[in-house]
Structure formats: C-alpha cells, structure tokens
Amino acid sequence: MFKKLTPMIALFVSLLLSYAMTAKSWAQTATLFANGFFLPTGVTVDSSGNLFVVSDKVFNVAVSKFAPNGALLWEIPIGGITIGFQGKIATNPVTGQLFFLAPNGQILLINPVNGATVPLVNLQNIPIDTSSIFDIASGKVGNFGGNLGLSSFFNYGDIAVLQRQNITALFVTGTSQAQAFPFIMRLRFQNNSLVQAKFIAGSSASTAGSSNFASGIAVNNQGTVFATLPIPTRNFILGNFNAPVAFNADFDLTPNTSDDPDIVLNGIDLSTKGMTSDAAGNFYVAGSSVGSTIGGIAAGSGGLYVFSPTLDGVVSTIPVGGLPGTSDVAVNPAGGVYVATQDSVILLR
Questions:
Q1: What is the Cα–Cα distance from 329 to 210, expressed in whole angstroms?
Q2: Quick one: pLDDT at residue 186?
Q3: How far is Cα 1 from Cα 247, in angstroms, rounded to an integer?
Q4: Which residues in the chain come in under a pLDDT of 50?
Q5: What confidence score (pLDDT) does residue 18 get?
Q6: How far from chain centre, in Å, is Cα 33?
Q7: Which residues pair with 245 in a beta bridge?
Q8: Residues 274, 267: Cα–Cα separation, whole Å
Q9: Nearest-CA neighbor of 134 among 73, 193, 186, 195?
Q10: 202, 256 contact by CB (below 8 A)
Q11: In the prediction, which pLDDT does 173 show?
Q12: pTM of this structure
C-alpha cells in the first residue's frame, strides 16, 4: 500500500527535503470562532456543522457544543479535579456518536444532542493483546519484551473512529510506563460489545526519560490510519525523531502484508498533537516540523499541514502565525477548518 523506507534512509531523505517538499499555502480567511478557553485540547464536528470543544476548567474538563454560527448550545463537565486530564474527542461519521478519550484511558460516549455521557471502556481495566506488535523502528513484530503490559501506568493521547457496517474501530495513541514506548492500539466493537483490544504498532526507538509523547491519529474514509512514531537517526547527538506512519485499518486481520505499517511522506520529521480527515480523505495535522521545511513552514515552526489521502505529498500548509500552540483540528461539512490554539478556536475558510 505504501512505499517502505528504512529509518536510516528516511533520515537521509528528510534532510534532503528541507527545500524540496513544497506545497501551496492556502489563501484563507481566519476568524475567531470562540475564545475564553483554558487549554482547549480537542475539537470535532458533526454532520450538521456543530463544533465540540474539550477544554480545561481547572476543577473539571468541559465539553462544549457550538452551533455553526458560534452560539454556545450546551456545556457539560467531565470528572473532578483534572490536572493533565484534558483529553481528546472524535465523532463517529456514520452514527454521530462522540467519543471522549482521557489521558488515563477512560473512554466515554457522549450524546451529541444533549451531552449525556456513558462510560464505554476503561483501558486500564481490560485485557489487551500484546503478543504481536509491529515495531516501526526495526520493521519486526514482537511483544516489546513485555514492556507494554502495565497499562495502568500508560498515558493516552488521541483517538480516531472508523465505522464499517456493525463494526466500530477506535484507534488510540499512547505511551507506555515512563513514556518509554509510544504505541498505537485498536479497539473493535461489534454491536456495542468489545471484541478486540490490541496494540498493533509501536516503536522501540525510544527510552524512558526521553521526550516521547502520544501523537495525534486519524483514519480517513478510505480506511487509511495515519499517525507518527519515533525512528532512530543512528546518531546519539541527533537522537530520535517522529516520522509519519500509515497502515490499513484492517492491518493484521488478513494475510495481506501490504497493510503493514510503513513510514510515509519520505520520512519527514513531524511532531503531531491532533489530526483529522475530510470527506475527500485528506489528512489535516496540527503539529510542527523539527528538521525539515514542509510546504513553506520552516523547521522548528508549527502550523497546520494538509496531506493527500495516499500520503504521498503535501496538499497545503498554514504557518502557525496567529495559531500559536495548535493542539487539534476539525473540518466541517462546508470545508471550514477549526484549529484549537492556546485559548481559542480559529475558523479558517
């Protein structure tokens, strides 16, 4: 499905692409859609164009629903004192259900009409298959020496949803104890019953104490899952960097090896916080590049990146500019793009 790159080749290519990977920058109108937030960490939309925002309220986390015109429709609290509990939110594009993921692994279902919440699963309390995990750093399959077995110490980052007939697949990113091994896991529900919880990909190119974090993740309507995982540079001075990784949503469910996770986009070094996809299958990424200029956004800067459905090129970029600290992104049915910043949500048309 995707062209494979070894970590060493990926590093070499990414360095060459400092000026080669270009894309048009959008001619867009940016407007302030909603503000007054403290650390809005997650955004998503429904089929009617309503926007849902996760933000920290100091004594709890709030999920707020806004109409397309910016009017606040409702706001619900989640949890108690919530240091580090902010979480992410995603919409099932078929059913309209909202999925809230907390960093401690609690996943809630939220009714998009009235905000009623129902616990779905707690990732700390369920058995998770760790028997065969694809290591993007080595290209081999293993169990990471059993280091992905203590899920009560994990930190979870982002969530994406794919609905196929009566199967709901959730893709979740996280890091293991002491942030040693970033990973991607898949949960599969059939008729609302959990039928699989499995770590499917990870990276051994990291150690405890390094600056690993759970990346953003998205899945498009073509069944491609997109995230980032660290790969080694073979140079202890440079350390590791996060490379874009993609695989088919049905990876390891069939004998088709073309579904295996691959390093894509020529192995550019991309750190991500939140992702989404649009109706055409393009991927939108809130993040930053460490060592490569991507579509006019200089190395070390942040912004919004748009990649094609096949992840073979950059469609567009928006420099961070007035979007400091971007944490998540959502696209409404009309093509408007919402970007969560440090204290507000910006709408790009």
A1: 26
A2: 97
A3: 8
A4: 2-22, 27, 208-209, 322-323
A5: 36
A6: 22
A7: 227, 263
A8: 19
A9: 186
A10: no
A11: 95
A12: 0.89
